[in-house]
Structure formats: structure tokens, C-alpha cells
Design a protein that fits this description.
The structure holds three protein chains of three kinds. Chain A is an alpha/beta fold. Helix content of chain A is 29%, strand content 27%. Chain A has helices at residues 3-9, 23-39, 42-46, 49-60, 189-192, 225-231, 268-285, 322-340, 353-356, 361-367, 383-394, 412-430; strands spanning 69-75, 79-80, 86-94, 100-108, 113-117, 121-126, 131-140, 143-146, 148-155, 162-165, 169-171, 174-177, 208-209, 235-239, 247-252, 290-295, 307-308, 314-319, 373-377, 399-405, 434-439, 444-448. Chain A has a seven-stranded mixed beta sheet, with helices on both faces. Chain A has a five-stranded mixed beta sheet with strand order 5-7-3-1-11, with no helix packed on it. In chain A, helix 2 packs antiparallel against helix 4 and helix 7 packs antiparallel against helix 8. The longest helix of chain A is centred in the C-terminal third of the chain and has 19 residues, at 322-340. The radius of gyration of chain A is 30 Å and the shape is elongated. The chains are: A alpha/beta, B mainly alpha, C mainly alpha. Chains in contact: A-B, A-C, B-C.
């Protein structure tokens, strides 16, 4: 007996509880006896034996003891990036000597984890010495999350009477979610030839190769294979070589992007911060000089002092020193906090969304070094973001847009937002801008070629 | 208190069953003690109406007793509710969903105002501008003329005026909610199909 | 939202099993009693009334009204068929005492049909009230036409005053589309009413009965008589639907109302077949009703505790196996008990009468005391 059993132990001492499940049998018996006696119908009278057997079965039933149940929880990966589903499996072992015909198991995932596939519940039937399992997938918010112990409710074969307990649980109980929880892929020079695509650069002066199919050597261990089996493709951002004038990562956490695909899912802005963080890491690791700007964040909101642009947004000039790293981390943290704040009312999908959350490309351009490359991480959920990317591309900066996709689903609103976003993507592509359309259920793989 | 009443009822019931068994198996022995034939002749048992009344009252009384006594007495912890109240978080396109719901409810109440149609018109025109590379005025005109998709439902929904056929208008009167949802679904699907088709052609 | 929240839905496999057991058992009991057709008509009427409830949930009042009228019509047709098989046409007062079993089977079929469809469509019993209103609305125009046809100008004035009063007293409760359907019904009724009256008069069994029918038709007029039938149809449908609504409001029907109705209907069919004395089938029928209840209650509880998204297939199968075994044991025990009782007493001696009464009262008290 564990402590968890002890706190409910007093209550279960009485054996099975009536529960009222076979009240219908009692009703039936009374009705048959009454009708049979009133009409003088012997057969109906005797038919009361049928519900009588049910009542006997109810009285005789005793639900299995919760002490026989041992539960183990395993979480597929206990550290995940935002938006990535991970599978939680509860395994029930019957350690008693009676079969448990009906065990209903209710896991209690933390508030910060939203169940996205299946439910955190199941009804299993376990013979002595056997195990059964219940699994579901969750997506976590930023931070560490502690699971509560599951509740188990046991019933006998006739399901008359029940016992409910909180069995102790072994295994994983914590799920943590961090920006860039995965170390970016570093591809060795030996693998580089596999990706050689020199000279087929699209657009004028663009030095990115963006979406391509998954290749051997990408960060295989982090690939969500189940998702891959469904959709058959993965997103990979592929940089050919560091840019001479430095690269500026722009992350867009303005209000229109602070929506998720469904309640409890990470917002598009959170995913943009995640993408920006990973792009920054990867480019710095490849020896590039990298800067950062965050749309929708006030320079004053950042914990360390940083410069601001004309629109008072944080500006970290391209660099490769420790200062750049410190400032970037602080700006990304501030952006992550703001990205997770959901506005009380959703922004309009059509209409004057732009005027409410201006992107102010002029202010950014004033800070950008002459021919720096720009990587914009934006969900592209409004016209302003599109206009910003177009303005930068028009000013002869090589521009890559990485856009997490939270649109779609079954709701008409999600689908319409999806169509609008697709049109924006097409418009940018028609302007020669490289756009990575990142399906957020897949890992975003960032790779840089031509680096050691 | 309840326990004593319960025990008394049980005792009386058991005695009656024993009496019945005695009458079945040894009617003579019981008959010498109790005036059986006199009881059988009493109106409560001999007249049909009396029998109905007497036994019916006992039966109904028992039913009420059972209904009152039944209840759940699980001593363990309660299960958490199945669906946690869904947070009122904004989701992508949530406002349009709200418009669809408002329009559906308006249609169910017999009102005709439609907040979704103008938004979908504008969306279809945008898609047409992109796919056919025409200007916005032309696209707008084609949408209003219903000449932008093969889907008759989507075309008629976005078309100008009440050009819908009698059958379609009748359907809208008979099944208001379903008709609005279907129209919105079909129209969004038609716009998606426009883009998909172009993507396929370009892929070729 | 148009249907009950997904969270409340009974578990799929067991709920389907419960409905299947109920439908098969009810039809089987009907067949064993020799009333297959009546039971099937009741089943169809129940389905139509459930369809009316579903349409009412979706604010499709015209469709709801038509389906309610169809369900009521099937019910009236069933009642008429059962009655006319035993009483010559047209029935005149006093009508002799008719056997209860066919009527009970009609009602049992209706309950099972309604319950089965309500389970499949996740209907809330509260919506049955709206379907009843829609059905009544359809009958409004024919009833008004019938009153006018029977009563002439004074009746027309009366109807006009009532209608004006309804409109003046705010928006009438009568719903537009459903009322239009009823008004559309008046036209064909007015065309065929004379012919129907002629057929009815010619079908009379004897001269006195024919005269009685002709007298009635003289008072009501043919359109009035036909409208009377429409009103009876709508009243039957509304009565059934309102009874369901009332049962739900008083807490008699819980969250899995459909499954409860299926079990109750099956039990009613078993009692009906027991009244006619069909033998051991009754015991199987009672066991089937309890099996349907067992599975239905299990499905509802499972749906509430685990929900449809959870993995529960294996647990459900295990329980279905156990429930079928329990029902089988109950049947065997009851058959054995029936055999025992038959050998003990077949006579109606005072001793057995008193013994039966004592056994009934004793068992009832014991049952109630043990709960």
C-alpha cells in the first residue's frame, strides 16, 4: 500500500458501493411483480427472476482493489520546442491476482500542455501480470510543466460498484518546452556534396536556398517521423554561405500573429520567435555576423539595454561577439513573452488589421547596413508583414521569409486565413523573395552549407 | 432511523415470502392456522379492481422508495470533468468564424443579413487576381457574375442579387443553418481549388 | 450548437450494441406476439418523430413539422389498423374492450425507434418540445379550414378573431415555414375530401353504422372530418414528443435519454408479449431489455468518464461479453423458475391466490428494503 492508496483507503473498506447502476433492474422487478400479480399472469410474475439475477449479480460484485494497479508514465521527449507534439503513454500493470475487467484511467496533464491527439483517458482491461496502455499527444507552452498523478476508476465485470483511487505513478512527470530546444544541425563538409546545388540561385542576388526536400545528414534524430509518414515532406532552410555584409534576423511578434491554430496551441508569433532563435544560432555557428530586430517589441521591454530604431523597437546590429549574443538572447526572451500574450479579441483577418499593427519598414531600413541580408520570421497573417518584406526586397536586400503556418483546420475562419496567407506567399514569391512555408507540425531544419 | 424502517420492511417482506412458500408447499398446514379462504374472498383479492388497487399501491410505493434511495456512493476521488472549459483564446480566423455563426443564427431566426458574403467576395476576387493575373475590377465583376468557379453553390452564393434558383431558395428556407454552413464551406473550398489548380499547373 | 456536446456522447461500440439488442428484441417480440406489422409501424413512427426532433434542433421547422405529422400519421394508422381488425367500420360507441398488447407493441416500437435514432443523432430530449410545436403548427391551417368548412361564416369570423389575437399578442408562436406547409396541405385535402368521405361511407359494415357516419359527416362536412384526422395525427405526435420532453424535464431521462428509451421500449414489448401469453420468449425479452439497459448505461458512463476520443475498445468488448453472459444466466434461471412454479400449482385455489399475493408483496418489500 502506498501513500496515495492510504488516503482513500478508509472509504474503500466497505467493499462495493451500490452505485445505482442496476436501479433499472429493481424497477423492472417491481413492475413485473406488480403487473403479474394484478393481471394474475404467472409468467410475468416469474419473469421477475431475470432482474432478480441482475440484483444478485450486483450484490455479489466487488470491484478490484486499486492496490493492484501500478501506473507508469512515459513521455516520448521530455524537452520539446513550441508547437511540437509529443506522445505521453500511460502503462497500467495489474499486479494483483484477479483480472481487472474495467479500469478507467484519467491522466491529468498540466495546464500548460494541450492535448492535441487522442484524449488523456482510456478504458482498459488487464489480466493479472499483464499491462495495457493509453497514449495521447500534447503540445506544451513555454516553460516547465508538472503532470498530476492520474486517477484510476475500477469496476467489476458487471460494472456494478466501483473504486476510485489515485495510484502512484512512476516514470516521467515533467515536460519542458524551450525555444530552440534542439541543437541546430551542423553538417560536416563530407556531407556537403549531397546538397550541392551551386548556380541555380533564384531571383536577383539572393543567396539563400530555401525549402528543399529532406536529405541524409539533416538532423534525423529530431524528425517527427509519424508526421513525416502522413505528409511526406519536411521543411529545411538551407543557407549556401555566410553573407559578407552580415545577416539581420527580424522576428515579427506583432498583434496579428498572436493567435494559435486552436485554443492551447502556441501562437504563430511564438513559433516565429522559435524559428528566429534557431536561424540566429545556426548563422552565428556558421561564422556569420548576425543582427536582430523584433517587430512588436518595445526596446524598453528588453531586460538588458539595447539600442532602438525610430519606431522604438530593439535593434541589435550585426556582430559576432559576446555582447551581440547577450543582447540577442534578451531580445528573443522579451519577444517570446510578448508572443505568448494573446490579445483578448482576435484581430480581423480582412480589413484594417495593418493600421492597428504597423510594421514600419522605414524605421528598420534606416538601421540596416547597406547590403545586409535579411531573414524575416513572420507568420504573414496580415498585409503589413508582407509589405515589409516587399519593401526590403525592393531596397536590394537579399530577403528570406520563414513563415510558420498556423492556418487551416476545419473552421472556415482558419481556412480563409490560410487562403489569404497563401496569396501573400505567392505575391512575395512573384517578387523574387524566397519564402519558407513552415508547417509547424514538422521540425524546421536549418542548415548552412559551405561552413565548417 | 432509515435503517430501522428498512429492517422492518425487510422483515415484513421476508415473512410474506415465507407465508407464500408455506401456502405453495403445505397449504393444509397453513390453512389450519390462518383463515386462508376468508382472506382470498376479501374484496382486496377477489375483485379485479381491488386487486389492482392493492397491489398497484404496493408496487408504486416500492418504486418511489427505490427512486429515493438510489444514489452514487463512491468514496474515492472524483474524476476531473471530461472537457475542461475551453479558454476563450483567440484562434486564427476566429472573427470570421464568429461572423459565420452570427449569420447562421440570423438565418435560423429568419433574418437575411449576411456578414460573411462580402468577406468571401473580396477573398475570391483576390484569388482571381492572383490566378488569372487580371485587375481587381475585372475579378470583382466576374465574382459578382458567378463566372469564377465551376461550383454552382459557391458561384451563386457570391453572385450579385438573388439569382439563386427557386430550388435553392426553398432549400435555404427549409434548412437555414445547414444551407449557410454549406455555402460558406463550398465557397472557401472553391477558392482553395483555384489556388490548388494553379499550383498543379505550375508544377507541370 | 446543433447537437449535444461531444463530451456527453455515449461510447460508440456499446451504445450501438445496446440499440441493436433493443431493436432486434422488440421486433422479435412483436413477431412472437403475431403483431410484426404493428411493431414495425411503431418503429417507423418513432424514427420519424426523432427526425422531427433533429430538424427542430437545426431550426428546420417546416421539415420538423412534416416529419412530426408523418410520425403521428403512422401512429394513427397503427391504432386504426389494430382497432379495425377487431371492430367493424365505422366504430361507434360504446367500443368494446380491446386487447392491450398490440397498442403496447405500437408504443414500444415508437419508443425504441425514437431512442435508436436519438442515440445515433445525439438528440437532446429538450428539442422534442420544439418538434411538438412544429407539428402542431402544421396542423393549424387545416384545423382552421376544417372549422370554417364545418361552421360557415360565423366560424370564419371566430377563426379570424383568434388569428388576429395571436398576431396582436406579439409574434405568434406558430412558425412561418411550418405554417406555410400546413396551409399548402389544405389545398389537396380540399380536393380529395369528398372522395374520401364517399369511400368511408361505402366501406361501412352495416346500415346503422353507415347512417351514423353520414350523420357525423353532415355535421362536420367532409373537409372538417379530414381536418379532424389531421388534428388527431398532430395531437398524437405532440403528445409523444411532449411526454419525452416532460420525462427529461422531470429527470426521468438522463444524459443518455435515447438509450434509456430503447431499454424502456424493449421492456414494454416484453410485457405486451407476456400479457398475450407467448411463453418463454417473454423471459428472453425481459433479459434483452435489461441487456440493452446494461450496455446503454455502460456506454453513457464510459462516454462521460472517458469520452469518445479515449482508447476504450478492449474494455468495451470485455464488458459486452460479461453482460451477454449475465443475461444468459438470468434467462436460464428464469426458465428454471418458471418450470418449477408450473409443476407446483396450476389451480386457482384460495391458497394459491393468497400465496401469490403474499409472494408479490413480500418480494416487493424485500426489494425495496435491500436497495
Amino acid at each position: 500500500m502506498t501513500a496515495a492508496d492510504a488516503d482513500i483507503g478508509t472509504g474503500t473498506g466497505t467493499g462495493s458501493d451500490p452505485g445505482g447502476r442496476f436501479d433499472a433492474a429493481a424497477f423492472t422487478a417491481v413492475a413485473l411483480l406488480t403487473v403479474g400479480a394484478v393481471l394474475g399472469n404467472g409468467l410475468l410474475f416469474v419473469a421477475a427472476v431475470v432482474p432478480g439475477v441482475y440484483l444478485v449479480a450486483e450484490a455479489a460484485a466487488s470491484p478490484p482493489s486499486p492496490g493492484a494497479v501500478r501506473v507508469e508514465r512515459s513521455i516520448e521527449s521530455t524537452a520539446v520546442p513550441p508547437g511540437r507534439p509529443t506522445t505521453v503513454t500511460l502503462t497500467v500493470a495489474n499486479e494483483g491476482d484477479r483480472p481487472i475487467p474495467d479500469c478507467r484511467l484519467v491522466d491529468r496533464p498540466p495546464e500548460g500542455a494541450t492535448v492535441v491527439e487522442g484524449t488523456a483517458r482510456g478504458c482498459v482491461s488487464v489480466r493479472p501480470g499483464e499491462t495495457a496502455s493509453v497514449s495521447y499527444a500534447v503540445v506544451a507552452d513555454h516553460g516547465d510543466h508538472e503532470f498530476d498523478d492520474p486517477v484510476a476508476r475500477l469496476r467489476s465485470l458487471s460494472a456494478a460498484g466501483r473504486r476510485t483511487a489515485r495510484p502512484s505513478v512512476d516514470g516521467d512527470a515533467t515536460l519542458s518546452c524551450r525555444q530552440a530546444a534542439e541543437t541546430p544541425a551542423v553538417r560536416s563538409a563530407a556531407r556537403r556534396r549531397a546538397g550541392a546545388r551551386a548556380g541555380d540561385s533564384p531571383g536577383r542576388g539572393v543567396e539563400f536556398h530555401s525549402v528543399r526536400e529532406y536529405r541524409r545528414g539533416d538532423d534525423v534524430s529530431r524528425v517527427d517521423w509519424r508526421r513525416y509518414a502522413k505528409t511526406g515532406d519536411l521543411s529545411t532552410v538551407d543557407f549556401r554561405e555566410p553573407h559578407a555584409a552580415g545577416t539581420v534576423v527580424v522576428v515579427d511578434v506583432r498583434r496579428p500573429g498572436r493567435v494559435g491554430r486552436a485554443p492551447g496551441r502556441p501562437t504563430a508569433a511564438t513559433l516565429s520567435v522559435d524559428a528566429a532563435g534557431r536561424l540566429f544560432e545556426r548563422l552565428s555557428a556558421a561564422g556569420d555576423r548576425v543582427g536582430l530586430s523584433a517587430l512588436g517589441v518595445a526596446a524598453a521591454d528588453v531586460d538588458v539595454p539595447v539600442a532602438g530604431d525610430r519606431a522604438d523597437r530593439p535593434w541589435v546590429p550585426p556582430g559576432d561577439g559576446e555582447t551581440t549574443r547577450t543582447r540577442t538572447t534578451a531580445v528573443l526572451e522579451a519577444a517570446a513573452d510578448i508572443a505568448a500574450e494573446r490579445p483578448s479579441r482576435p484581430p480581423p483577418t480582412v480589413g484594417d488589421a495593418g493600421r492597428r499593427a504597423p510594421a514600419r519598414p522605414g524605421a528598420l531600413r534606416a538601421r540596416l547596413p547597406g547590403s545586409a541580408a535579411v531573414v524575416v520570421a513572420t507568420p504573414l497573417l496580415d498585409e503589413e508583414a508582407t509589405a515589409l518584406v516587399e519593401t526590403l526586397a525592393g531596397a536590394d536586400h537579399p530577403v528570406l521569409a520563414v513563415s510558420p503556418d498556423v492556418t487551416g483546420g476545419d473552421r472556415p475562419g482558419g481556412r480563409v486565413a490560410g487562403v489569404e496567407r497563401r496569396l501573400r506567399l505567392e505575391r512575395l514569391r512573384a517578387r523574387g523573395v524566397e519564402v519558407v512555408d513552415w508547417d509547424v507540425a514538422e521540425p524546421l531544419s536549418v542548415a548552412v552549407e559551405g561552413s565548417a | 432511523m432509515i435503517d430501522r424502517r428498512r429492517r422492518l420492511g425487510g422483515a415484513v417482506g421476508a415473512a410474506a415470502v415465507v407465508l407464500a412458500a408455506g401456502l405453495f408447499f403445505a397449504p393444509g398446514a397453513v390453512g389450519s392456522v390462518l383463515p386462508v379462504s376468508a382472506v382470498a374472498r376479501s374484496t382486496a383479492l377477489s375483485a379485479a379492481a381491488g386487486r389492482v388497487l392493492a397491489l398497484g399501491c404496493v408496487g408504486v410505493g416500492c418504486l418511489l422508495w427505490i427512486a429515493r434511495a438510489s444514489g452514487d456512493e463512491d468514496p474515492g476521488p472524483t474524476l476531473p470533468p471530461l472537457s475542461a472549459p475551453e479558454a476563450d483564446e483567440p484562434v486564427v480566423g476566429g472573427d470570421l468564424d464568429g461572423d459565420v455563426e452570427a449569420t447562421v443564427e440570423a438565418a435560423a431566426a429568419g433574418a437575411g443579413h449576411d456578414e460573411v458574403r462580402p468577406e468571401l467576395r473580396s477573398l475570391a476576387a483576390d484569388a482571381l487576381v492572383h490566378v488569372d493575373d487580371c485587375d481587381r475590377t475585372t475579378a470583382r465583376r466576374r465574382v459578382e457574375a458567378g463566372e469564377w468557379t465551376d461550383d454552382p453553390v459557391a458561384a451563386a452564393y457570391l453572385a450579385d442579387g438573388s439569382t439563386g434558383s427557386l430550388r435553392r431558395r426553398l432549400a435555404a428556407r427549409l434548412r437555414p443553418r445547414r444551407t449557410i454552413r454549406r455555402r460558406v464551406d463550398r465557397t472557401v473550398a472553391a477558392v482553395e481549388a483555384l489556388l490548388d489548380e494553379q499550383e498543379r499547373e505550375r508544377g507541370r | 450548437m446543433s447537437t449535444a456536446a461531444a463530451a456527453d456522447r455515449p461510447a460508440r461500440t456499446t451504445a450501438a450494441g445496446s440499440v441493436a439488442v433493443g431493436v432486434v428484441a422488440t421486433l422479435g417480440l412483436g413477431a412472437a406476439t403475431g403483431e410484426t406489422a404493428v411493431t414495425a409501424v411503431g418503429l417507423a413512427a418513432g424514427l420519424a418523430l426523432a427526425g422531427a426532433t433533429r430538424a427542430a434542433t437545426d431550426a428546420e421547422t417546416a421539415i420538423s413539422g412534416v416529419l412530426a405529422t408523418l410520425g403521428g400519421g403512422l401512429g394513427v394508422a397503427g391504432i386504426a389498423a389494430v382497432t379495425l381488425a377487431r371492430v367493424p367500420w365505422p366504430p361507434v360507441l360504446p367500443i368494446p374492450f380491446l386487447p392491450a398488447a398490440p397498442f403496447l407493441l405500437l408504443l414500444a416500437g415508437g419508443l425504441v425507434g425514437f431512442g435508436a435514432a436519438a442515440t445515433a443523432w445525439h438528440l437532446r430530449p429538450a428539442a422534442a418540445g420544439r418538434a411538438a410545436v412544429a407539428g402542431t403548427t402544421v396542423a393549424a391551417a387545416p384545423a382552421a379550414a376544417g372549422v370554417i368548412a364545418a361552421g360557415g361564416p360565423p366560424a370564419a369570423v371566430l377563426v379570424a378573431v383568434v388569428a388576429a389575437g395571436l398576431v396582436a399578442a406579439d409574434r405568434p408562436a406558430l412558425d412561418g415555414p411550418a405554417f406555410v406547409v400546413g396551409a399548402g396541405l389544405v389545398v389537396p385535402l380540399a380536393v380529395v375530401d369528398d372522395r374520401l368521405a364517399t369511400v368511408a361511407v361505402e366501406a361501412a359494415a352495416d346500415e346503422t353504422r353507415r347512417q351514423a357516419l353520414v350523420d357525423t359527416l353532415t355535421v362536420t362536412g367532409p373537409l372538417g372530418a379530414v381536418a379532424g384526422v389531421v388534428v388527431a395525427v398532430s395531437a398524437l405526435a405532440a403528445g409523444f414528443l411532449l411526454a419525452v420532453r416532460l420525462a427529461a424535464d422531470t429527470g426521468l431521462l438522463g444524459r443518455a435519454a435515447g438509450l434509456q428509451l430503447v431499454a424502456a421500449g424493449t421492456f414494454l414489448a416484453a410485457v405486451a408479449s407476456g400479457i398475450t401469453g407467448t411463453g418463454v420468449v417473454v423471459l428472453v425479452g425481459v433479459a434483452a431489455a435489461l441487456l440493452a439497459w446494461d450496455l446503454g448505461e455502460f456506454a453513457a458512463t464510459l462516454g462521460r468518464e472517458v469520452g469518445r476520443g479515449g482508447a476504450s475498445r478492449r474494455g468495451e468488448f470485455v464488458h459486452v461479453g460479461g453482460a451477454v453472459a449475465l443475461a444468459a444466466v438470468a434467462v436460464v434461471a428464469a426458465v428454471a423458475a418458471a418450470g418449477l412454479v408450473r409443476t407446483l400449482s396450476a389451480s386457482g385455489t384460495p391458497a394459491t391466490v393468497v400465496a401469490a399475493a403474499a409472494a408479490a408483496v413480500g418480494t416487493l418489500l424485500l426489494l425495496a428494503a435491500l436497495r
